[in-house]
Amino acid sequence: MAEKSFPRGSDLLHDPVLNKGSAFTAAERDALGLRGLLPPRAQTQAEQVERVLGNLARKSTDLERYISLFALAGRNQTLFYRVLVDHIEQMMPIVYTPTVGEACQLYDRIFRRPGGLYISAEDRGRVAEVLRNWPERDVRVIVVTDGERILGLGDLGSDGMGIPVGKLMLYTACAGVHPSQCLPVTIDAGTNNAELLVDPLYFGLHQRRLRGPEYDALIDEFVVAANELFPQLLIQFEDFGNENAFRLLERYQERICAFNDDIQGTAAVALAGLYGALRITGESLRDQRVLFFGAGEAGIGIANLFVRALIEAGLPQDEARARCWFVDSKGLVVRSRNDLSSHKVVFAQDHPPVTDTVAMIESVRPSVLIGVSGKPGVFSRAVLEAAARQAARPIVFALSNPTSLVECTAEEAYRWTEGRAIFASGSPFDPVSLSGRHFVPGQGNNAYIFPGVGLGVIACASRLVTDDMFLAAARALAHQVSPAELEEGRVYPRLTHIREVSRAVAVAVIRVAFEKGLAGVAVPADLDAYVRSLMYEPEYRSYV
What we know:
By secondary structure, the protein is α/β, with parallel strands linked by helices.
């Protein structure tokens, strides 16, 4: 017999968490008042997946596929995640980068039903009341944005909700965090996007962004209320502007269980890719010199974790920082400049100013180029040819998202270095054939890190998220790359292995939590089996 608390009939079919659609069995249809409300033949979940894939294939654009998938999530959550889990390589570029960027730019146009919680500047003084409107009470992870720096697209205000929604879908698909434990939040503190402010269809606040004490009070009210309402909570800060991202991380990192994915998650992914590249070249980490194009959250975050890894390898801090060189919008970051923000000052080098990119490479002689600039084409032919003159196997990571903002394409990186580059990018690229060789570019996707980190934190109820956890996560990810994948030029494992990767990352995080005395619960000795047991599988339940 069906449980009495379950909805019946059409109410059940309109509940995306409980609905199985055409997969309800004959017995379930009789018991739940569904007979006649569905086509007569019960289908298997596999048949439903095949139908979904066929429908997606008939769509003409990835944005249409994005809309179709989110409509599916609103009808049948279990089937949606089955499609994601079983076809993650095909689906991730649709539900997240690069398509999510276009979706955010059009979010108020394609809006169908709310997928998260909006907290606005008008809610000051009653944020806790707004949070209580969320129907779930066992929330373990919140991804929150204020929409100021969505990917490389800039200030999209409340239209940035697509980012936390997409990130949390990856928590579930990639690491098995149960959907009911995930809460996407957008803090609408206004927008400075002039087009949105005059757009009558924009559904965010038509006011300029809060700054200073008013903004801080809104964020603090949210953080306090969320942690009181959800006592086992992890907060992931996502796509905040540089002005606030570093400051908020510094403010909360030692107070609550929180991290910033743009700073720390990106850093771990990049460092893991660097470890993978060095497995190909046979060189050591301490011998690398890195030139960063872009000195914002991602670049500084990568450099800080790179320095931490070098210190563990035996280098003094000053010597480790001397391995990191930065280029911002005004040229090489050097000590003689008087326009540097505090997070850049620590990496400013004692060197004459340089603004020409080729001259920078010839002077700095980097072995690694990391692009986090959001400036398409900055890794020009001249730049890549210069890099290839400095290193036998130049490591080129073009990590900006979405694809329209990437520093160079995979084909450009391989062609302009005569096939010697070890390449990775933030958005996916197809394999490249060049002079009889076949290259498979790696995608430095943060999904390799943040879902596993979150799963590990949840599994051991860690009180904090530390930089040591991200260093451990980077090493765990690097170890998941097989020799065969390295032979293809990959520095990351195939996305088809993402659940195994997330499990390994979670285990590494749990070990750090226990070493540092941060774990809030005891866990079994077999960490891998324990983590596996916690991972949600999108399978239908039986109702009779």
